[in-house]
Request: fold
Amino acid sequence: MSPALSKEQLEKAVSRLVADTSHAPVSSVSCESGLEGKVGSIAHCDVDSGGLKLRRTVEVNSVEGLMMNFDVVPVLTKEEVASSLLDEFEQQSGHRPDRAECTGNLEGRPGNTVDCTVVTGPETASFTLTVTTVSGGSIKYSYAPLP
Reply:
């Protein structure tokens, strides 16, 4: 029989792990499901920590007997990615584009990518964002124009 965590067990485990890594109090965790004890199994959780709503993906990386180990991976929702990219452009140029639209969420794993289109007046430009580093729940990325 393979191990599994119920939704409630997973929420408690994620709460403890996020509090340990972020050193901020976790007021709530809500996971969409439990977690099956098979390598590669994933679950998605929303964490309220220090007044911030954080999205996290939980992925099983090893199973030994009834014990399973998993990683809690930070995720930027596509809205958070777009907002972050607009902030980046504003810092660099002093002008904030009208809007940015991204194709999906950006999971905090180095090398992961998402495409975004930035709109300023009648002009649009498309970029690929690539995760460069992940540290303590913070995702750093680089971006380059799409060809």
About this structure: Helices lie at 7-22, 78-93. The longest helix spans residues 7-22. The mean pLDDT is 92. DSSP finds two helices and eleven strands in the chain.
